[in-house]
Amino acid sequence: WESWLFKLEALYQSGAGEAYAAAVAGFEYTLTGVANSDMDLGLLSEVHFDSRGDAALTPFNHDVFGGFRLAANDTSGTQVLAGVVADVKSGALLYNLEVERRMTDRWKLNLELRAFAIRGRFDFFGVMDRDDYLGLEIARYF
Length: 142
What we know:
By secondary structure, the protein is an all-beta fold.
């Protein structure tokens, strides 16, 4: 819808244990031609919910996400996606950064960073507190 993109992923499961519902809802609003350039800036927001609360088998049971997607719209396909997932109960944070760019017709560079900041009481993310991740991939296509 014009510059807006809306998203909803939802499920309801029953029959295997106690029934529950889970959902992710959000939006992306894109600003085109940022600073009189060819670049587009998408502003992202999501809410994560799981009716099982702290008993959920996922860390995304009562969380919010905010971030941005920057597309350079250049011939190299340069894109940056960055954001933060925050657990609204514990204050745990998950930082995410993804950068990709074609270097030539055959070579592509991808960078991924995931970093955790755990606060307060134990959180599902707590087991990942020391699992920050930095990945660099250089791919060649045939």
